Amino acid sequence: MKAFFEGIQYLFVDILLTPLDFLRSLELSSWFAANTINWIFMIICTAAMVYWIKQLRIFDQAGTEGQDTTAHSFLK
């Protein structure tokens, strides 16, 4: 049983998380490069929010959005 958990430890620590170790060591020379993953997630979230707001505006201008309180049965 111990070998099973050591195998999981080896998989995550020595194989899957190696790129994150590289980014951690990169922090001493370049903070922006070390936070590359964060920048990518912020760009993805910003693009998703812009798309969502654009879709909300399209439905609002078309008048198809139900904003009355009877739109959901539990609000009656």
UniProtKB/TrEMBL annotation:
Record Pfam families: DUF6341
Family matches, as InterPro entries: DUF6341 (IPR045922)
Record carries keyword Membrane: yes
Keywords of the record: Glycosyltransferase, Membrane, Transferase, Transmembrane, Transmembrane helix
Transmembrane segments: 31-53
Name of the protein described by the UniProt record: Uracil phosphoribosyltransferase
Superkingdom to which the source organism belongs: Bacteria
An example Gene Ontology molecular-function term: glycosyltransferase activity
